[in-house]
Amino acid sequence: MRVLSGIQPTGSLHLGNYLGAIRNWVRMQDEMEPGSQCFFFLADMHSITVHEAREQRIRNVRDMAAALVAAGIDPDRSVLFNQARVPAHAELCWLLNGTARIGWLNRMTQFKDKAGKDREGASVGLFVYPVLQAADILVYNATHVPVGEDQKQHLELARDIATKFNTDFGVDLFTLPAPIIPRATARIMSLRDGAKKMSKSDPSDMSRINLTDDDDAIIQKVRKAKTDPEPLPESAEGLGGRPEAENLIGILAALSGEAPDAICARFAGQGFGAFKPALGEVLVETLRPIRTRFLELRGDDAALDAILEKGATRASAAADPTLRAAYDAMGLMR
Ligand code: TYM
């Protein structure tokens, strides 16, 4: 089993990233069997689709590395690195650009969302983004990719690219990766709008809980989270058509391990004024140790760089044979 996943180092880690992906990364790392390997990386090459000043980009990569270690990624057991240090990703992306079809990329909903109305003004990088993501996965022959729901379509594309490459060149080179998507927390929604996912790029900071938020900020954000005027139902069935309520109860369930039905039964008939302090408290208790560790690690740039450099060496060693085989399959002499 080879586990691989990535995160863009833009903005800070938020609760959606944590519950949708990172918590699963840590679980898979902790349950890893001998002979299995986990690769986790900062998708800095993907993040060039958003303009950022040089110094900020450097800061972002180190901060996200610190956040992942604080959340439980152990750089001795898992291979933790930033994509720019492992050129095999970009090289394989170019080779796969010969395989991926424009029609396939045209169907990517994330491109449509991010490009907005001005498609002609969007960068080529934003369009080709999913091919680089396919290369990230295929260059390690990853078998399992733990991600949130929003990455499912990109994973399907990676499988399509792998299949077509293998068929076109008559090889059995790329493994088809399986997405690992948590059932209950695949899509954590914005605290301000139950129809939008929680996201780093939402202009309202009140829409998300950041790993860097202090206790007071967390409590405030929960208190101000959008809800509806109805009391809590007796069971989770009564949450249908109430996206904000469903999201908040889902978050508490994910953090406390309690079933949504049990939470509803506990607060049945009461308003959100009773429920929100309970959610705030569990959030504060869960995030405080991660934040404390993050703040300790964040100051030590030399230690973070050393972790990422060591990770990149290990990652390159794992990626290079696949990359070499891809060049060879295509008849590109080196
Ligand atoms: P990114 O940086 O947007 O998000 C990182 C991970 O967090 C998950 N996620 C969520 N899960 C649940 N609810 C939410 N509101 C939420 N917001 C984010 C994402 O699904 C993701 O798993 N393209 C990827 C990075 C990437 C990658 C890869 C992932 C690049 N190459 C190869 C896997 C394999 C991205 O932008 O994730």
UniProtKB/TrEMBL annotation:
ATP binds at residues 8-10, 16-17, 148-150, 188, 197-201. GO terms for biological process: tryptophanyl-tRNA aminoacylation. One of its GO terms (cellular component) is cytosol. Its EC number is 6.1.1.2. HAMAP family: Trp_tRNA_synth_B. Catalyzes the attachment of tryptophan to tRNA(Trp). This is Tryptophan--tRNA ligase.
